[in-house]
Write a structure and sequence with these properties.
The protein folds into 2 domains: 173 residues, Glutamine Phosphoribosylpyrophosphate, subunit 1, domain 1 (4-Layer Sandwich), CATH 3.60.20; 61 residues, no CATH class. It has 6 helices and 10 strands; from the N terminus they run E-H-E-E-H-E-E-E-H-H-E-E-E-E-H-H. It has a 6-stranded antiparallel beta sheet with strand order 3-2-4-1-10-9. Strands 5-6-7-8 form a 4-stranded antiparallel beta sheet. The longest helix is centred in the last third of the chain and has 14 residues. It is globular.
């Protein structure tokens, strides 16, 4: 899924929060900020230690008074390498990060590049100058990317978040999902087994209780999305993911594919 973060200049994120982002999204980190009319991009960090060292130099240097956009990747398409890490430059004026999967971008089997790279090449680089300020174009981008989220940053530090309502404002920042938080078990025990979902759920241990196998598994009103196609999940689809011990939250179509794959491996 990845996580994208918009950090205003006056906000300091803790090392623990950033390490949580990296731990939950370990396939390459990066960040960007504007300085003297240029976009500065630092990316291709595959250990948290390397990321933290570079990040500290930046926030205590040229980025000290600048808004910053950060990204921590989980690979869904393409190689795990620096070119597929975010941020990505659209041109010398503007760059972006992406969280999600853009189903309208058809990624060839075995592609070495991600859907984000292809989206940049096939769509964003063909848009007119200052497209991010055009409300009509913003709405068209939202329609095209579905449940994905984007953060644009130009060379003067102006930012635009697409689908910001799908993210979370916390700690003075905007997060594209909740993987900046420590994982919390939320599914209650039933019969003799307990299932733990990584970080897409909130859970209050004080409310934990044992329920029958046929009892409803969900007690939250939060909305969850398929980690493959981005579709909003129905409650029964989430419950199926739990009962199938799926490592991901998937819609029925992709959960069926997951189950078939698992059985073929047995």
């Amino acid at each position: 899924m990845c996580i994208a973060v918009f950090k205003p200049s006056k906000v300091r994120l803790s090392k623990a929060t950033l390490e949580e982002c990296f731990t939950n999204n370990p396939d390459g980190a990066g960040y960007m900020y504007a300085h003297e009319g240029k976009i500065i991009i630092k990316k291709g960090f595959f250990t948290f230690e390397d990321f933290w060292k570079a990040y500290n130099v930046s926030i205590n240097g040229y980025a000290k008074k600048a808004d910053m956009v950060l990204h921590f990747r989980i690979s869904t398409h393409g190689l795990i390498d620096e070119p597929n890490c975010h941020p990505h430059k659209i041109n010398d004026r503007i760059a972006f990060v992406h969280n999600g999967i853009i189903s309208n971008v058809k990624v060839p089997v075995g592609s070495k590049v991600s859907d984000t790279v292809l989206f940049n090449e096939k769509v964003l680089r063909k848009l007119p100058r200052k497209f991010e300020d055009n409300i009509a174009i913003q709405e068209l981008i939202e329609e095209y990317i579905g449940y994905s989220k984007l953060i644009f940053l130009d060379r003067f530090g102006a930012s635009t978040i697409i689908n910001d309502h799908m993210g979370t404002y916390d700690k003075g920042c905007w997060f594209s999902n909740t993987t900046y938080k420590k994982p919390k078990a939320i599914v209650k025990s039933y019969k003799s087994s307990t299932y733990y979902s990584d970080y897409y759920w909130d859970y209050d241990k004080e409310k934990e209780e044992t329920v029958e196998e046929t009892s409803p598994l969900l007690t939250t009103e939060e909305v969850y999305y398929c980690e493959d196609c981005g579709k909003e999940l129905a409650v029964w689809e989430v419950e199926d993911c739990i009962l199938e011990r799926s490592e991901q939250m998937l819609c029925q179509e992709h959960l069926d594919e997951h189950c078939i794959f698992v059985k073929s491996e047995d």
